[in-house]
Amino acid sequence: MEAAAPRSLVILGATGSVGRSTLDVVAAQRGRFSVAAVAGGSDAVALAKAALASGARLAAIADPGAYAALKDALAGRGIEVAAGPDAVIEAALRPADMVVAAIVGTAGVAPTYAALAAGRTVALANKESLVCAGGPVMRAAAAAGARILPMDSEHNAIYQALGDAPVERIEKMIVTASGGPFRTWSAEAIAAATREQALAHPNWAMGPKISIDSATMMNKGLELIEAHHLFGVPAERLDVLVHPQSIVHGLVSFADGMVVAGLAHPDMRVPIAHCLGWPERLTTPARRLDLAALGGLSFEAPDLVRFPALRIAISAMRAGGAAPTVLNAANEVAVAAFLAGGIGFSAIAELVERVCEAMAGAPSAEPGTVAEALAINDAARQKAGEMLGRLGLTS
Ligand code: NAD
Ligand code: MG
């Protein structure tokens, strides 16, 4: 039998934590994948390295100021080089069997949307694109007949647990949370947490933004909204369960009383391999699960008092309309301010809540298009910036 043609990939966010793990999985599957394009934000050296290692034909960098450095780093290598946000969209639209959407934050909305609207199969790690613009993004995917394979570990586990069950047969869909580095900390200790403490996730090594989101537990709120859009399940049937070992990633509870869960060691190569190989299964070197050796798994309800960001995100999900878009934008500003040393840890949730309250009235309808979602995002970012100053939250 003839060997199948390699599956071609575009990897957006190739220099990040998910992007690098994706390249690891690809490199271990000799001949099974080819890389049409890689894209990144501003690190030209890292992007050039990713392009050379993967044999990519195009390297696109969002920061126009990084063009010369990228061009130099790839001189004479026969790899096309492009820069600017449009170049990232061009990379997303390169003919390919699958686009891995692993850009962090709202910067991922436009390229993810472009790929889906063009009918590409997208392996989606960039949850912010669904929190910011879930309605328009999902509608564009449906209209183009584009498949979304969830790469976020919880949603990947749920996707695998779902089988063919229709949404109305699902009683509960549950994303688990490790609880982050502050799970057992007092509210006072959490309020005084430093950047280094917040970045030190107990189970996962991830980029800085999602690490802070995990420490505040905003990440779980973003994931509930992500699940709502991905699986079409109403807010009241979505739940969070704290599970410190991060072995069970997601659970689906069906109308007949059966619960199906997805289990694996916390290693992003497992959900990444599931997406890249789908519908086949790849082999990965991920640690195998030995439940007898683990002995026990523990679960607890989330504490919405010590982790107000999760409470605020759940309110935004229930409110619907523009609230998730506003929440996502305010959170991005707040996390950036915290990482830059401008605000304390508890000011993250405080700022997000104030921005959500201030913008609850206008415009409250769900954005109908990605452009509308991005306009609400910009307005919320501006409001968050003003409030940072007015509340004396900046250093
Ligand atoms: P990261 O910070 O490690 O990497 C982010 C990537 O996005 C980098 O390649 C960066 O160059 C690129 N980027 C940033 N701004 C860009 C722009 N304007 N245009 C193009 N590229 C840009 O982040 P990460 O931890 O890999 O997370 C990426 C996404 O995946 C996030 O949405 C995160 O929530 C999600 N996710 C991450 C993990 C994880 O284990 N890290 C797990 C599940 C979901
Ligand atoms: Mg996750």
Q: Any overview of this molecule?
A:
The protein has 395 residues and is α/β, with parallel strands linked by helices. The protein has helices at residues 17-27, 44-54, 67-73, 85-92, 109-117, 128-144, 153-162, 187-191, 195-199, 208-216, 218-231, 269-277, 291-294, 308-319, 323-339, 346-358, 370-390; strands at 7-12, 33-40, 58-61, 80-83, 98-101, 121-124, 148-150, 170-177, 238-242, 248-254, 259-263. The chain starts with 6 loop residues before the first strand and ends in a 5-residue tail after the last helix. The model has no long low-confidence stretch (mean pLDDT 96). Helix 15 runs antiparallel to helix 16. It has 3 domains: 7-151, 3-Layer(aba) Sandwich (Rossmann fold); 153-265 and 287-307, no CATH class; 320-395, RNA polymerase sigma factor, region 2, helix turn helix motif (Rna Polymerase Sigma Factor, Chain: A), CATH 1.10.1740. The strands form 2 sheets. It has a 7-stranded parallel β-sheet with strand order 4-3-2-1-5-6-7, sandwiched between helices. A 4-stranded mixed β-sheet has the order 9-8-10-11, with helices on one face. The protein contains 17 helices and 11 strands. Bound molecules: nicotinamide-adenine-dinucleotide (NAD) and magnesium ion. The site of nicotinamide-adenine-dinucleotide has 29 residues, from helix 1, strand 2 and helix 10.
